[in-house]
């Protein structure tokens, strides 16, 4: 069976950027895009912070451009999920659609997924008032009253960030305590624009068919249900890196992220590299994912050259 030089798994900014660099280095990469393709940017509307697009660009359109650029240099793409990998011996084995593929090097760029509440109305109003990314969408809520769900560092950071735009931010917490670090809690509680609702779950996202108008809340201590009017809902209840496929194959940290050597995309398995959100719980931006995708392709290219 033919052995590929490089297989890339994942089709967000990291995977496609790795493909652009690898294809231009004549590694003829094979890219498994997964289903759905394109990663988290496919779920956003306007992207205003990706450099090079001064007027902004729609998330799906940006990913389409990434894809075309990777294709232009000869990346071969499969819009299919990888169902198994075997990194225990070389060449590495990647299984997709019941077929096995072998490669000398692999780049893992499967990303992470924001956690969602799973309540009625949430998906319907995604991009129309409901967001899981304050950095991406906060700007659109200038002067508005909005809500944030979560009690961790992300929720505190996002709530604080959102006060730059919103007139009022209400943090809805399901317990009567925060999980966030003390310094983040202090910063949020000291902010006059932020208030808290405790012991409360969001039961439903309510809208007028166009945009969100409010939330149905349930107080889990008093059992009372109420309506909370809001023009925006930001979810900050955590992210889940898409690493189930790599358990037992790669070194994965306690939060589920692939562990890389500091300052590089090298995983613990020589020849396997990781890029983008799958290995990054700190920055999680399209531009940083693209940057590490580039790094992974360069690392893979050098690794292949030195072992040849
Ligand atoms: P965490 O897992 O730390 O916190 C998630 C929060 O969401 C918890 O308060 C949790 O509640 C709540 N939650 C989870 N599911 C639901 C639900 N269905 N309904 C309502 N609330 C829910 O995730 P974060 O994204 O906040 O942080 C992830 C990691 O990243 C942490 O290690 C954090 O320290 C780090 N981080 C650091 C930052 C910094 O230092 N600047 C900024 C952002 C993140 P409960 O407590 O009840 O379980």
Give an overview of the whole structure.
This protein has 308 residues and is α/β, with parallel strands linked by helices. The protein folds into 2 domains: 3-113 and 240-307, FAD/NAD(P)-binding domain; 116-235, FAD/NAD(P)-binding domain (3-Layer(bba) Sandwich), CATH 3.50.50. Helix content is 23%, strand content 28%. It is built from 6 helices and 19 strands. It has helices spanning 13-24, 59-72, 134-137, 153-162, 182-189, 286-307; strands spanning 3-9, 30-32, 46-47, 57-58, 76-78, 84-86, 92-96, 99-108, 112-114, 130-131, 145-149, 168-172, 194-197, 200-207, 212-219, 225-229, 232-235, 239-241, 272-274. The strands form 5 sheets. Strands 1, 2, 5, 6, 7, 8 and 19 form a 7-stranded mixed beta sheet that branches. Strands 10-17-11-12-13 form a 5-stranded parallel beta sheet, covered by helices on one side. Strands 14-15-16 form a 3-stranded antiparallel beta sheet, with no helix packed on it. Strand 12 (168-172), helix 5 (182-189) and strand 13 (194-197) form a beta-alpha-beta unit. Helix 1 runs parallel beside helix 2 and helix 1 (13-24) runs parallel beside helix 6 (286-307). The longest helix has 22 residues, at 286-307. The two termini are 19 Å apart. The chain binds NADPH dihydro-nicotinamide-adenine-dinucleotide phosphate. Residues 117, 149-155, 157, 174-175, 179, 236-238, 281 line the site of NADPH dihydro-nicotinamide-adenine-dinucleotide phosphate. The site of NADPH dihydro-nicotinamide-adenine-dinucleotide phosphate has 16 residues, from helix 4.
């Amino acid at each position: 069976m033919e052995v590929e030089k490089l297989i890339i798994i994942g089709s967000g900014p990291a995977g496609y950027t790795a493909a652009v660099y690898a294809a231009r280095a004549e590694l003829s990469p094979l890219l498994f895009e997964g289903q759905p393709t394109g990663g988290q940017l496919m779920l956003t509307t306007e992207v205003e912070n990706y450099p090079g697009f001064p007027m902004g660009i729609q998330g799906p359109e940006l990913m389409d451009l990434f894809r075309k650029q990777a294709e232009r240099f000869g990346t071969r793409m499969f819009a299919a999920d990888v169902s198994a990998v075997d990194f225990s011996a070389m060449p590495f084995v990647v299984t997709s659609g019941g077929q096995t593929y072998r490669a000398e090097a692999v780049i893992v760029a499967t990303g992470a997924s924001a956690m969602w509440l799973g309540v009625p109305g949430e998906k319907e109003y995604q991009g129309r008032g409901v967001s899981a990314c304050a950095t991406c969408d906060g700007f659109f809520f200038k002067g508005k009253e909005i809500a944030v769900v979560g009690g961790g560092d992300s929720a505190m950071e996002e709530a604080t960030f959102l006060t730059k735009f919103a007139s009022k931010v209400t943090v809805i917490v399901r317990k009567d305590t925060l999980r966030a670090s003390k310094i983040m809690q202090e910063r949020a509680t000291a902010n006059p624009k932020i208030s808290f609702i405790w012991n409360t779950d969001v039961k439903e996202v309510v809208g007028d068919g166009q945009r969100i108008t409010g939330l149905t809340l349930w107080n889990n201590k008093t059992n009372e249900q109420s309506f909370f009017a809001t023009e925006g809902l930001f979810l900050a209840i955590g992210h889940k890196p898409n690493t189930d496929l790599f358990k037992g194959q790669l070194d994965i940290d306690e939060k589920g992220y692939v562990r890389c050597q500091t300052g590089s995309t090298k995983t613990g398995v020589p020849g396997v590299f990781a890029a983008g959100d799958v290995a990054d719980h700190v920055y999680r931006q399209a531009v940083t994912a693209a940057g590490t995708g580039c790094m992974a392709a360069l690392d893979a290219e050098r690794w292949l050259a030195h072992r040849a």
